[in-house]
Amino acid sequence: MAQIVSMPKLGFDMAEGILVRWVINEGDKVSKGAVLAEIETDKATVEVESTYGGVLLRQLVPQGTAVPINDPIAVIGEPGEEVNLEALIGKPGGGEKPKGMEKPMEAGAIQTASAKPAQRSEAQITAVLAEAAHASPLARSMAAEMGIDLRAVQGTGPGGRITKKDIESFQLNRPEAVMVTTPSPATISLGVPLKAFIHETRNLPLPKLRAAIGRRMSVSMQQTPHFYVTHEYDVGGLVDRRKEINALLAEDDKLSVNDFIVRGVALTLLEFPNLNASLDQGNSSLIYHGEINVGVAVAVENGLLTVVSRNTDQKTVHQISAELKNMVKRAREGKVRPEDIEGSTFTISNMGMYDVDQFTAIINPPEAAILAVGSAKQVPVVMNGEIRIGIRMKATLSVDHRISDGAEGARFLQALAKYIEEPLRLLI
Question: Is the pLDDT of residue 384 over 50?
Fold first, then answer.
């Protein structure tokens, strides 16, 4: 029986997504769990998997279409099956057709399902499609930094998509004629070193991810009463245990300090359900989540993404490390999956690799708290009346004061110490 595939909601505040590229063509077989299409949100380009198996009978929207969440985008069914859209969508008797299907898309045009698109020149449309559909976000960033016109690059990825390797190969052999000497604002990444145009004033469009972060963090600071508690941990034992364990592991399997912290936080949250909770949308009731899903903030092109470890309290440090490595890799390559970035109940932001003593983080709505982790440093400490060298790390907990109070925040950080300072607890 034919099934409708709808635009999924891939973010807490997502209203629509752009269908950047169809991975499966009409008439092709599709397995349940196979990547069906690439959807671009404010945060990232996400590979959306099919929830059904069968044949892709109809693509209901063209590439480049902005589609509201829950609107139909495809039909999957049996080979040769008749497609009755009105019956499938549940609108009998001449009901409204799926948005974007009222009239065919003209060659090279980009449609918006909810509004009439602005008029664009053929050259602009070609450039947008080339950037969105035929190059990964990492490849686009590299091309902007190197001054490469993507239209001159031959892609070797799926469907001819331009990848990091294609950009690197092109850079080694490119003719000077294809260099972009004066990039337009639409193709300049904010990741381009400022020295590239330090003596020239430019007005650059704000990247979608940067704008999304700004919206969410502004709402959080304006609507969530934050309070902050800081604790200093003795991480000498953790650093030593990690070194011993990593000596036995292959290079790709080595554990980070953050892997231990993530598990420690998950186990501590078992004792503090208030900090694994959130307010409902009306702020009238408290939702205690049945799972502990720890999010980890990751630096990506033009901003941050939070990748999510699910049921973290039930996983070993090694399992947490492996899944985080995979999700971080996908995030930085622009290939995140919906489950990679959704459903966190608590977030950790670790800036230890940047030689940061301590900092405060803004709560990721609708969560109750976020932990900001600084660097582990050698410092003079007093032990048994003597000054010695120890390894210390500071962490600051930001908490929603509507959900919890300072005393509970302080107790949480104290409880976390038994895992951070006695790391063998994390290995049993």
Answer: yes
Asked whether residue 46 carries a pLDDT value surpassing 80, the answer given is yes
Task: At 54, list the tokens.
Answer: 């069968």
Q: Which of 123-137, 153-167, 294-308 has the lowest mean pLDDT?
A: 123-137
Q: Are strands 346-350 and 303-309 parallel, antiparallel or unpaired?
A: unpaired
Q: What is the pLDDT of residue 136?
A: 61
| Distance between start and end Cα atoms, the chain | 48
CA dihedral (102, 106, 112, 116) positive or negative: negative
- How many angstroms from the chain centroid is the CA of residue 404? 27
pTM above 0.90, yes or no: no
Identified catalytic residue from 226, 231, 289, 401: 401
134 is an active site residue: no
Contact 390, 303 (CB under 8 A): no
Q: Which domains does the chain have, with CATH numbers?
A: 3-89 (2.40.50.100), 135-205 (no CATH), 210-427 (3.30.559.10)
- Distance in angstroms (rounded) separating the CA atoms of residues 309 and 304: 16
